[in-house]
Each structure stands twice: as structure tokens, then as C-alpha cells.
Sequence to fold (169 residues):
Amino acid sequence: PGDYLAFIGRASFEKRLDRAIRIACRAKMKLKVAAQIHPEDPHYKNDIEPLLNEARDWVEFIGEVGGREKDAFLRGAAALLFPISWPEPFGLVMAEALACGTPVLALRHGSVPEVIRHGVTGFIADSEDELVEAVGRIGALDRAACRAEAERRFSRGAMAERYERVYAQ
Fold:
């Protein structure tokens, strides 16, 4: 596993990059951010920029990534940090991380409990404090189990089979 936490997504209030920055700093682990930043966005200006000024040593922006570059980014991370604050219906990036063998550290919102198996493919927390603590337990998670879970639940074949079952009903 890598020596950094990964964050992928918009730098929006719902995705909570501000939380990710605080968690990484408190856990004393580098955060690599794959996102497009809009400096004119009020959330960026008011919530993220001040944190970045304090946390420059801990945070690295790499810009948007896709395809193989995204896979390599996720595969190289110790974990994906997913500190969302809204009821996200699926959170594709969680499944993408698992497919790369990368565990997920997430707050309990939206589909997180449906996608992540607590203690197996990541840790589900109810607060930033719990996510900071979870960073220290990443090594207890089996990356092969993350990959196997993604294959079992989210591969093309598995998804097609479940869609066919739904359509048949």
C-alpha cells in the first residue's frame, strides 16, 4: 500500500474535501487530491483555501484523473478517504477503489454502508475523529479481500446477472 490517502471528486461541500484535509493532517498522513478546483467557488474560498494555507505540507493536488491514471492513483493509495456529508446514492469511486484493491475510509452517509463492509473492505465512521483513528488501522485490512469483493459485487458479469434478475421479475 501507498503512503498517502486518496481523495477523488469535486471540491464541493457535499464531498467534503475540507474534512479530508483535516483528517489527513490530524492522522499525519499525506493526502493526494484528484479533483478540479474552482478558486471562485465560495466553499473553496471560505472552507478549503484557509485549510490549505495551514496544511500545504500534507496536501498535494494532482488534478483530475481518469482511466488508467485513476486506477494507478487509487492502487497506489493506502486508502480512499470518502468523508461525504450527503446521502449519495452510490458513490462509484468507492467501487473503483475496491476494484484496485484499495480500502475505503468513509463517513456513514448514503450508500456507504451498502458498498463498504466495515472491517473488511474499509472502515465506516460516524465522525472525523473516528476516521482519524481508522487511518491508523488501515494495515489491518486485506487489499486482496477488497479486490475480491469488488469482483464479486461490481464486475460486469455480476452486475449484468443482477440486472437480468431484476428485469425477469
The mean pLDDT is 93. Strands lie at 4-8, 30-34, 59-61, 79-82, 104-107, 122-125. DSSP finds eight helices and six strands in the chain. The longest helix spans residues 42-55.
